[in-house]
TrEMBL record:
Lineage of origin: Eukaryota, Metazoa, Spiralia, Gnathifera, Rotifera
Domain B box-type: 82-127
Pfam family, one: zf-B_box
Keywords of the record: Metal-binding, Zinc, Zinc-finger
An example Gene Ontology molecular-function term: ubiquitin protein ligase binding
GO biological process: aggresome assembly; protein autoubiquitination; protein monoubiquitination
Residue segments, region Disordered: 497-521
InterPro entries tied to this protein: TRAF-like, TRIM_RBCC_E3_ubiq-ligases, Znf_B-box, Znf_RING, Znf_RING/FYVE/PHD
GO cellular component: aggresome; peroxisomal membrane
Name under which the protein is recorded: Uncharacterized protein
Domain RING-type stretches: 12-54
Length: 521
């Protein structure tokens, strides 16, 4: 009967045959033959489920059971050897007692010296009590194994999720970094391969450990069901040793992060700046007032360190509040990691107080801590320079990942291109205005030359006019002289005519001759 139950345990859950080549579902530990698994995955439906536990499965979830045939043969041999529950020392007496001293099952005659018993005066208990103890002990191991199995399956799911996250992250990165240089692509591929190999190795280890736990649980449960009390006592040590030999699951961190696995392989440099808060004791007496210090960092970014020296937290305590604000820079949101350090007055770097945060910044946004440090503890903790009455801060900032740095560089490059384009537009406009001015200057020069030519012509014409005027004046003076001569001649002629009338003609002729001579001279 026990053999029949044992054979049913290892039957295929679908065809109820005892296969020569068995597979086992890793979720319910039930057996199935290879042909039935092939029939399950023959159709093209996406959702494949285990016929017994109805859990969605892949072909890899059915693991090969290489030890089954050898184990069945060993069980059959053991069952043939243990056909009766008789004492080996007293063959006709049934085993009903358990010797606690020797940890072996015995009969009643083994306790009596008259029957030459070897367990006289040994501590004993009934076989039923011993069986209950063994069952309880084995069951506790089974419970611990089940807990470990649940943890292992949970770790396996997390590991698989991490592997899927890595694959997804790889696809995203390759899409984003398609235009990057070959050297960075090689580094990314190497980092991906390393992380994938690490998690793949973890997954294989978990699968192997889960299979071992499943196998051991199945064996232990079958032993409890199929073995008699004495037989269970016989195999107790072996079962416990097998449970002890089971590997423990490695600790899997619950906070497996895949977002930055591929982004943190390049260490970016910090940009640092320091700020000294002078007259701190006097200035922290007024609450609500802030101290602001501006810093110009790379890529044309302006940051402000804002300090509230006497703020109140939710517990109504006087606290030091510190914020970092991006005043101007790239308009796109960029993720930065920044550290605010409160330096110790002793100068010991190990005694400084620092806080770190990662936040996405855009122009106008700020991030920091409302309760950075309690004001009443600054002096006692040695953060106030007593002689100078001051406290010193140092802040460090950088992009959170290489991807954010690339985004910053690309945005800055686009901004520079836009600025260059605007500068080119301004230069082109100025060049056009220059050409217009040059054309105006050329036209004005032509006009000046024309005016000069006209001026020279006018001067020449004026000179000619002056000459003409002088000629005209000469002509006029000559004409006046001729008129005067004509008048004189007319007067003389008139006088001559009158004289002719009065004198002889010869006298008149002599007078005319004299007149011609005088005129000739």
């Amino acid at each position: 009967m026990a053999s029949d139950n044992y054979d049913q345990t290892f039957e295929c859950m679908v065809c109820l045959e005892s296969p020569t080549e068995s597979l086992m579902c890793r979720f319910c530990s039930k057996f199935i033959c290879v042909s039935c698994v092939n029939r399950i995955f023959e159709n093209s439906e996406n959702d494949k489920k285990c016929p017994h536990c109805r859990v969605p499965v892949h072909r890899d979830d059915f693991t090969r059971v290489c030890w089954l045939q050898d184990h069945l043969k060993w069980v059959d041999d053991q069952m043939k050897l243990a056909t009766t529950n008789k004492c080996p020392e007293h063959e006709r007496v049934e085993i009903s007692i358990f010797c606690l001293t020797c940890s072996v099952p015995i009969c009643a005659h083994c306790l009596l010296s008259i029957f030459h018993g070897k367990h006289v005066q040994h501590d004993c208990c009934s076989l039923e009590d011993a069986n209950n103890r063994i069952v309880s002990e084995v069951q506790s191991h089974i419970d611990r194994a089940r807990q470990a199995l649940d943890k292992g399956q949970n770790d396996l799911r997390k590991t698989q999720k991490s592997i899927d996250g890595i694959h997804q992250r790889k696809a995203q990165l390759l899409a984003k970094l398609s235009d990057m240089v070959t050297a960075i692509q090689v580094k990314i591929d190497e980092e991906i391969d390393e992380q994938l190999q690490k998690f793949e190795d973890k997954r294989k280890i978990f699968i192997g450990q889960i299979n071992q736990h499943n196998e051991m649980i199945t064996i232990a449960e079958n032993e409890i069901k199929s073995k008699s009390k004495s037989e269970l006592i016989d195999v107790k040590k072996e079962l416990l040793s097998k449970f002890t030999a089971l590997p423990s699951f490695s600790i899997c961190n619950d906070s497996i992060i895949t977002e930055n696995i591929l982004a943190n392989f390049l260490v970016l440099p910090w940009q640092t700046a320091e700020f000294v808060f002078y007259n701190f004791t006097k200035r922290n007496s007024s609450s609500g007032k802030s101290v602001l210090q501006k810093y110009n960092l790379d890529y044309d970014q302006t940051w402000s360190l804002i300090i509230y020296p006497n703020n109140f937290n939710y517990k109504h305590q006087h606290v030091l509040s510190i914020f970092l604000k991006l005043d101007s820079g790239i308009p796109q949101p960029i993720e930065y990691t920044f550290i605010i350090e409160l330096l110790h007055s002793s100068g010991d770097a190990s005694r400084k107080y620092s806080m770190e945060r990662t936040h996405s910044f855009q122009p106008g946004l700020r991030s920091g801590w409302e309760s950075f440090y309690q004001v009443n503890c600054l002096k006692s903790d040695g953060f106030i320079w007593q002689n100078e009455d001051q406290i010193k801060f140092r802040f460090k900032i950088r992009t959170a990942t290489i991807l954010e740095q690339i985004k910053l560089l690309e945005s800055h490059a686009h901004q520079m291109k836009d600025n260059a384009r605007d500068a080119d537009d301004v230069a082109a406009r100025l060049q056009g205005e220059k050409k217009k001015i040059e054309l105006k200057v050329t036209e004005q020069r032509k006009q000046i030359e024309q005016m000069k030519r006209k001026e020279s012509e006018l001067k020449e014409s004026l000179a000619n006019k002056k000459k003409d005027n002088e000629f005209i004046a000469d002509e006029r003076s000559q004409l006046k002289a001729l008129k005067r001569d004509n008048e004189c001649l007319t007067k003389k002629l008139n006088n001559f005519v009158e004289a002719k009338k009065r004198h002889h003609p010869e006298d008149l002729r002599n007078g005319v001759k004299q007149q011609k001579k005088s005129r000739h001279y």
